[in-house]
Input
Amino acid sequence: MCGIVGYVGPAMPSNRPLEVAMEGLARMEYRGYDSAGVALVAPMGLVSAKKAGKLANLRGVLEASPLPEATVAIGHTRWATHGGPTDANAHPHLSEDGKLAVIHNGIIENFAPLRAELAAAGVTFTSETDTEVVAHLLAREYNAARDLTQAMLTVTRRLEGAYTLLAIHADAPGSVVGARRNSPLVIGLGDGENFLGSDVAAFISHTKDALEMGQDQVVTITADDVRVVDADGNPAEGRRFTVDWDADAAVKGGYATFMDKEIHDQPKAVADTLLGRTDTAGNLVLDELRIDETILRSVDKIIVVACGTAAYAGHVAKYAIEHWCRIPVEVELAHEFRYRDPVVSEKTLVVAISQSGETMDTIMAVRHAREQGAKVLAIVNTHGSTIPRESDAVLYTHAGPEVAVASTKAFLAQITACYLLGLYLAQLRGNKYPDEVAGYLEELAALPAKIQHILDNEEEVRAVARAMKDATSVLFLGRHVGYPVALEGALKLKELAYIHAEGFAAGELKHGPIALIEDGQPVFFIVPTPRRPLLHSKVVSNIQEVRARGAKTLVIAEEGDEAVTPYADVIFRVPRTPTLMMPLVTVVPLQIFAAELAGAKGYDVDQPRNLAKSVTVE
Ligand code: F6R
Output
């Protein structure tokens, strides 16, 4: 939610601050695209521009009325919470004297009393946002103390909720001050210039040296200095890290959309997540798992907490981990977890799965789990994010930056990481012999080529999707690991193509959903391998059942599975794959289908309406 960038450069004013801010916003537009804005400190004072709609609208404003050369800049791309996506509600928000500008990600929960207090003191508000109260409060404190860092410390003590804030002031032309609580802010360390960003994408083309900020800290950057303090103003240390991907990884690389590119990145995302996980003796080693082996051996229950697509990855993991390790696995939507008094003990391992590492619902679940004494292992894609920092251990997926709002390659990498975790636990606890673990790892290593094979034949899926662009409802059915794949196929289609789509466990069909079947109703089936005959035959029966009632059946089946042929209107073939690993191949045609169909309807595949890439509010 909301992308934030801040920059301080040399004392000589130039166009660089605005260029850095605009480039950072372009890279972070996936975080929110309801409106965008920038503010600069120029020799003449503070200047700003903002516009509702996508970043292109702001670019239009800047072309029509260029801003002057400056020394510092802040930029913001918004996902609306308080107040609709209008020009007035776009950030930055300014103080009444126009000398101070602030941008914000998150929600100030006590904004109403603060607003009332300011209004009673005679302040006139120009927007409906919670952010504007911060601009006015900061201006008052700055005018009293003439110190922006001090003003930020004083004001943040009065704020409740989650926020990242950046502020600049016309009288402080060489600094940007930032603060964070339960919302991301990363520092980029440059040479004679420094950066702030919601994530490293904000400054990746300028520096890979970064510093994580802790909870409730305030940072002041100047061209040559970065100063972090805690909420009491005492010096604080950040954790330095180097970003392990290139700016090139976050460009479309010749594809029409980021989603297209990311779907094609999937063989590499899986391969990279598997890379370097065995020692010279061939044993699976997960160096990042800093949880004591004795504790991992004593785990008697695993609870996966995650949201959306990441939760479906957890759902797939349940089948594999239970089968390999004989540990019960529950999968819980993170936002439901802490409200239902879950049974958690020090023998529970909570696995938090998140691409962004910033999903607030998942962060809150992590905190709750740790408060209850559980160990938390994070499976996360984004270095420097909050969830790994707040967990006991982390297993990073190596999918590279995922820019399209709809998750694709992160999903495959999450499933892969879950398999690694399952196999590691099985090895550690003696559920599997080393040669068995090695066998599974070999099967996993073969997956990237299989995914590539599907991508090489994607046109078939795309043609079917284009022909179905007027469909109004699509159902997805699967059993066993095919069930979460069905859920994911439906989610992709609804979020990208705005079509009603539902995923069901195929066995559930006869308990209700079959009433939805009428002539021509498209139904996808995710068919397990025929090498699991019992499971396979049940799904084939389900295909027959809906076909007999007039459905159009679109079947994803293994190469050579001829049992499905008589009942399929359309068949998408996937390479022969062990049952538990089938989701890594069967979901790919569904991703392609959703993206192509949405494109055929003229929708923005990378930035679907109402969504944002990382959901940093509860
Ligand atoms: C759907 C999608 C979302 C995310 C969910 C969790 O395509 O991307 O459902 O999976 O918002 O996000 P992360 O993984 O960042 O915690």
User: Anything to note?
Assistant: DSSP finds 19 helices and 24 strands in the chain. Residues 409-428 form the longest helix (20 residues).
